[in-house]
Amino acid sequence: NNTDTATKGKYMFLPRGGASNTADIYDITTSRWVYGYFYSPQAETLTTGSMYAYNGHDTIYFTKDATGRVYSYNFTTNNVQMLGQIPYGHSTAIIGNRLEIIETADGLNYLYMMRHTGAEMWRMLIFF
């Protein structure tokens, strides 16, 4: 559902994990994989505890494992941006997604994040 009409509805983006800084992309129209797709900048590696949320347009929001750092990845521009930091420290990274985008009745979009091994939840206003 991205804004680039040439690739709209064509790809499925799968972060590789395992402490890598790449993703694999599945081309739905040809049933083929593109392995080892690099996104830029390649400063962070993703592993157990990384969480993801797609905004339905051009951006995937994610956290880097149990560090609490929050990023956005725009797959139309292939650009990663740092958005912020969850204010509390994390303990052991858990498996499972605890990141979600919620739209309010008045059209605002919030990224909700939960702490690993905790019940605290934070939200961040996002624009797209």
Fold and architecture overview:
Strand 4 and strand 5 form a beta hairpin. The two termini are 13 Å apart. It is built from no helices and ten strands. The protein has a four-stranded antiparallel β-sheet, with no helix packed on it. A three-stranded antiparallel β-sheet has the order 1-2-3, with no helix packed on it. It has a three-stranded antiparallel β-sheet with strand order 8-9-10, with no helix packed on it. It has 128 residues and is mostly beta strands. The model has no long low-confidence stretch (mean pLDDT 88). Helices cover 0% and strands 45% of the residues.
The strand order across the widest sheet is 4-5-6-7
* Distance between the ends: 13 Å
- Which segments are poorly predicted (pLDDT under 50) over 5 or more consecutive residues? none
Q: Which assembly state applies to the chains in this document?
A: single chain
Largest sheet: 4 strands, antiparallel
Order of helices and strands: EEEEEEEEEE
Radius of gyration: 15 Å
As a percent range, the share of strand residues is 35-45%
What is the SS-derived class?
mainly beta
Helix coverage percent: under 10%
Q: Which word captures the global form?
A: globular
